[in-house]
Design brief:
By secondary structure, the chain is an alpha/beta fold. The protein has nine helices and nine strands. It is 34% helix and 24% strand. Strands 1, 2, 3, 4, 5, 6, 7, 8 and 9 form a nine-stranded mixed β-sheet that branches. Keywords: Transferase.
């Protein structure tokens, strides 16, 4: 069973090498790495070209944002299962895809996810926030729960059935996609209770108060559009993040 890992890049020369090396070091052999670059101008493309022999697909062209790039990657994926690793992020260890693949050996499984840690930009072993997902129950979606998107792997057939990322959302398109999928899929959703991804802080959605406000507005629209909830769900979604900072105290990845 092939797993497709999609990465989008734009002017991330400082971190993309770690991402590429992390995928290349995975012990699971039946995988492909697809990179969609948004016409970077800072040397990112030079790094990608140097690693071209490790990539199944490399595209560099202007796009309409990160979700447009992710959709392009999904369209080019040939694996039965698709997941994402952003250019600032790394897998927690070399056996992440092996554990994901083991869960998908059950043909009744549609989705697999795990835990995530936010780490310092300059030290990917210093944990800033520990996101312990917990077991999936559809009812939890109405309380603002969702798995960490960078840990979520879905069968490619689900994208063919339900579509990809909605480009109307600039920051929270991943939340919309997860709700749309998880509210409708009929297969099992498996939780792997281990950290799968180390994510550097400073991403688009949380890099400024303006972006945080935009994300909250989009989250509310998404909750309403998917008939999941409203202001109460949004409040619980945001409040649930506070214990993650407490859980991170003194941790090293």
């Amino acid at each position: 069973m092939k797993i497709s890992v999609v990465t989008t890049t734009w002017c991330c020369a400082a971190t993309v090498g770690d991402c590429l090396a992390s995928v290349a070091s995975q012990s699971y052999p039946d995988r492909e790495h697809i990179v969609i670059d948004a016409a970077s101008r800072d040397g990112t493309l030079d790094i990608l070209q140097a690693h071209r022999h490790r990539l199944a697909v490399l595209v560099s062209e202007a796009d309409r944002g990160i979700y447009d790039g992710l959709n392009k990657g999904i369209d080019r994926a040939s694996g039965e299962v698709v997941g994402f690793l952003h250019a600032d992020d790394v897998f927690a260890d070399p056996d992440v895809l092996t554990r994901v693949a083991a869960a998908f050996l059950d043909p009744g499984v549609d989705a697999v996810y795990g835990d995530l840690v936010y780490v310092a930009r300059g030290d990917t072993l210093r944990v800033v926030r520990y996101w312990r997902s917990g077991a999936y129950r559809r009812s939890r979606l109405r309380w603002g729960w969702a798995p960490p998107h960078p840990t979520l792997y879905l069968r490619r057939s689900l994208y063919e059935r339900f579509g990809g990322f909605d480009l109307r959302y600039g920051i929270a398109g991943d939340y919309d996609l997860m709700l749309r999928m998880l509210m409708q899929l009929s297969g099992r959703v498996v939780y792997v209770p281990e950290v799968l991804v180390r994510m550097r802080v400073g991403g688009v959605s949380n890099r400024s108060l303006k972006h945080l406000m935009q994300k909250s507005r989009e989250d509310y629209r998404i909750l309403r559009a998917n008939a999941v909830g409203g202001f109460g769900s949004l409040a619980w979604k945001n409040l649930s993040k506070l214990p993650q900072f407490i859980a991170a105290r003194g941790r090293r990845a």
